[in-house]
């Protein structure tokens, strides 16, 4: 019965990707009092929106849908944490006792290498009928890369572009469901009420040139660090000239919005969370002031 339900769902999905894990906002959708196990609200992309709309997914009210009290995404200092990247909560272990999960973001089974066919290869589609291009990619090698940023403001309304610092990068993602992100060893502990974290992605082509910013309540574990994060600067496109890359702490990237953009790329290029914009893979250890 579950199978029939989700076969029907997948056929109509115009889905993308979110990070499903403890501490996320909009985990059960955006209707108060309803914990929807079959929600894809948090995966909706952000495109051509005013700052007040795209910032923290306010356009769909996700800033108002926090996780339960006391629930955090835990960031183990100097280690890595696992998240599940999927096009719907149904295809993660957060729903249906994990009965619908596979190695992939859509609960389907397929073998590696998963590549588009042709030359240049086609965009990857979840379904044979061409629907479900949620990865916006042609192969593992061409996915745009994803990122996490942290703000030490516990109050989501006090988070802004200059206190939100990118601290982890995963180049070859989103691709598989289970994805691990490295945490800088020197990340200091959060206030008791927690920190704010954002999952971030700018896909590299294959569909609408949009972006993703997803809210979380997080905390750093296993840290006694007293180091402080510097004030982040906007990343700069530097694929052809590494000397142009922004050094040190970097802001999240806002791109292709109606207002609030902070990065640019040459015509036909996308500012992705990888070397192109000056981000090295893994923990960002250059974000501290001292
Ligand atoms: C919930 O999300 C839907 C779809 O994006 C949106 O139309 C609606 O306004 C949102 N509700 C709130 C309370 O923001
Ligand atoms: C962002 O918030 C910090 C406090 O965390 C504040 O000092 C700073 O002025 C704010 N920046 C902007 C641009 O509002």
TrEMBL record:
Signal peptide range in chain numbering: 1-15
Family listed: Belongs to the polysaccharide monooxygenase AA14 family.
Origin: domain of life: Eukaryota
Gene Ontology CC: extracellular region
A GO molecular-function annotation: monooxygenase activity
Protein name listed in UniProt: Proteophosphoglycan ppg4
Keywords: Copper, Disulfide bond, Glycoprotein, Metal-binding, Monooxygenase, Oxidoreductase, Secreted, Signal
Entry cofactors: Cu(2+)
Compartments where located: Secreted
Coiled coil: none
